[in-house]
Specification:
The chain has 124 residues and is α/β, with parallel strands linked by helices. It has one domain (4-123): Rossmann fold (3-Layer(aba) Sandwich). It contains 5 helices and 5 strands. α1 links the parallel β1 and β2 (28-33). The longest helix is centred in the N-terminal third of the chain and has 13 residues, at 13-25.
Length: 124
């Protein structure tokens, strides 16, 4: 059973692999990207992701906030979770959910399962 397709954008490989393993065990199809350019390429191949989980700080000229704004523009119904260990939620798009690192994978699973995710995200 597939609960949906999730794009994980995280440059820290251990975090990315752990999150991918947990979400796969929970029934999600997972695509991984190590930076924003890889994520944009993945979105070009499959713009129908159910959710995008991205770190803010990324190598290269684009960061996770840039990606979150892009996703909001091209796929406004896609759930977006933005995480950071150093930044706050102030520049996140309104309908994204911000998580401070370290975060609980159980919280991410709950957010992804929430049918009214974008409404919940706006409340935080």
């Amino acid at each position: 059973m597939c609960n949906g397709t999730v794009l994980i954008v995280e440059d820290e490989i251990l975090i990315r692999l752990m999150l991918a393993d947990v979400l796969t065990e929970e029934g999600y199809s997972v695509v991984e990207a190590g930076n924003v350019l890889e994520a944009v390429a993945a979105l070009g191949r499959n713009p129908a992701f159910d959710a995008v989980i991205t770190d803010i700080d990324m190598p290269g000229c684009l960061n996770g906030l840039d990606l979150a704004h892009m996703v909001r523009t091209v796929a406004p119904r896609t759930k977006v979770v933005v995480a950071s260990g150093g930044h706050g939620p102030e520049n996140c798009p309104v309908d994204c959910h911000f998580l401070q690192k370290p975060y609980s994978v159980n919280l991410i699973i709950s957010l992804l399962a929430e049918p009214t995710f974008n409404e919940v995200a706006q409340a935080f």
